[in-house]
Amino acid sequence: MLALASVADVLGLPGKAAPISAIGLVKRIEVGLPIVALDRVANLVAPNDSQFKYRLVPRATYERRKGRKVLSAEEGTRLARLARLWSLAIDVWGREDDARDFLFRPHPMLEDRRPVDVVIQNEIGAELVFDILQGLKYGSAA
């Protein structure tokens, strides 16, 4: 299992003094991740695409959320899924540019779909991408 501290770090959640637990992360998502976490993750994953965050949260919804300053549980779940993927991709590839190249390049094991698109779509798709990355990390075919 990927270290929760790295996922929390990607999300920009505080945790230096007291590391976040699995249930702590679930609770943070349930009560609403801060909207700045969306901006942070989008900037890490797609720094040259100012519109990328709207793939996770539609623009009109994003504008409404800015007033409340937190994401819904569903939006937070999608964001945490992407943060987990980013953290694993960095772990596997070692460099942000290489991780981005993997995420945004069509992959034959995903019927030539981009891993980032599959992850954003739903949890089952995300598990397929995680399996590919785990295979790369631990040496099986991917």
Automatic annotation (TrEMBL):
Record domain Antitoxin Xre-like helix-turn-helix: where: 25-84
Tree of life domain: Bacteria
Coiled coil start-end: none
Domain Antitoxin Xre/MbcA/ParS-like toxin-binding span(s) in chain numbering: 89-139
Stored Pfam families: Xre-like-HTH, Xre_MbcA_ParS_C
NCBIfam families documented for this protein: TAS_TIGR02293
Protein name: Toxin-antitoxin system antitoxin component (TIGR02293 family)
